[in-house]
Design goal:
Layout: H1 5-22, H2 29-41, H3 47-64, H4 71-86, E1 96-100, E2 107-110, E3 114-118, H5 119-123, H6 128-143, H7 146-153, H8 161-170, H9 173-189, H10 193-209, H11 216-226, H12 235-240, H13 244-255, H14 269-281
Parallel strand pairs: 1-3
Antiparallel strand pairs: 2-3
Helix pairs in contact: 1-10, 1-13, 3-9, 4-6, 6-10, 6-11, 7-9, 8-9, 10-13, 11-13
GO molecular function, one term: metalloendopeptidase activity
Organism: Candidatus Muproteobacteria bacterium RIFCSPLOWO2_01_FULL_60_18
Protein name: Peptidase M48 domain-containing protein
């Protein structure tokens, strides 16, 4: 199975090439030097800091939407998530997976390995390969440190980057609070478009390594593309992610010519639907 992966990656890499050629070299060189210098000065947080920051941001996000009160369902999603993460480039992070009690259709991850998927998203899925695909997309964001990178870039716009740098040196409480609140902000604004596309490409590779039909993630993107964008349930996800149709097209292109290899990879439909039917379909959210 491992022999196939570089092919997918190669295809993905070749996809990016034309964009670089199309780039117009029209910028102020001095300004660029100043900005890159500042960016380089920011110290990269250690893995322990990364986990600590991610935990703080996760706690904030859980304050907005608590986990579904169903241990069996949480254990199921955790098992799939851990299995998927084990096939990523950072299997040793302390990974956590949780289903959030909201109708909103969404999934996201904070630095250090905290991955969340909503009840609304699970209800629109058809099988375990789709779940594994979405979790693998989130795992890729963590592996590639996309949220941390966005926070560091925030320094250029005067956000939390300086705090991030001084936290890495001094571990100050004030800096930590600043980082966590700026980090939480990212989940309302979204990551870079390119990071989303990259997480789609890497997500299908991780799902395949974990033994799932890698077309699970593209199937979810197809479902998302068919949802009316006026639907409140998708408002936040559509605001923070590139267009689902474009994502589907790009990830499908990166997988082109690979279909035969994945023909026998399972979708695991029955285990998934019996879990969802017994634990989510009849689930009544706690009235507030
Ligand atoms: Zn994403």
């Amino acid at each position: 199975m491992k022999i196939r992966i570089p092919v997918v990656l190669l295809l993905a890499a070749s996809l990016c090439a034309p964009a670089a050629h199309a780039l117009k070299l029209n910028f102020d060189v001095d300004k660029l030097k100043e900005v890159t210098g500042k960016f380089k000065m920011l110290k990269e947080p250690s893995e322990a800091d990364e986990i600590e920051i991610g935990k703080g941001v996760a706690a904030n996000l859980l304050g907005a939407a608590p986990p579904v009160n169903d241990p069996a369902l949480q254990a199921y999603v955790n098992r799939i998530g851990q299995w998927v993460a084990m096939h990523s480039e950072r299997p040793d992070l302390p990974w956590h997976f949780a289903v959030l009690d909201t109708n909103g259709v969404n999934a996201f991850a904070t630095p250090g390995g905290y991955v969340f998927i909503t009840r609304g998203m699970l209800l629109r899925m058809r099988d375990e390969a789709e779940l594994a695909g979405v979790l693998a997309h989130e795992v890729s964001h963590v592996v590639e440190k996309h949220a941390l990178k966005t926070m560091r870039k925030g320094a250029l716009a005067g956000l939390a980057g300086d705090a991030l740098s001084s936290y890495a040196e001094k571990k100050g409480k004030e800096e930590f609070t600043k980082i966590v609140s700026a980090g939480t902000e990212i989940y309302a604004r979204g990551l870079d478009k390119e990071d989303e596309f990259a997480a789609d490409r890497a997500g299908v590779v991780i799902a395949a390594r974990a033994g799932y039909d890698p077309y699970g993630l593209p199937s979810v993107l197809q479902t998302l593309a068919s949802i009316n964008p006026q639907d409140d349930a998708v408002a936040l996800m559509f605001k923070t992610h590139p267009d689902s149709g474009t994502r589907l097209e790009l990830v499908s292109n990166s997988m082109e010519g690979q279909i035969d290899q994945f023909m026998d990879y399972p979708r695991v439909e029955s285990r998934f639907s019996s879990m969802i039917k017994s634990h989510i379909a009849g689930y009544k959210p706690v009235q507030k």
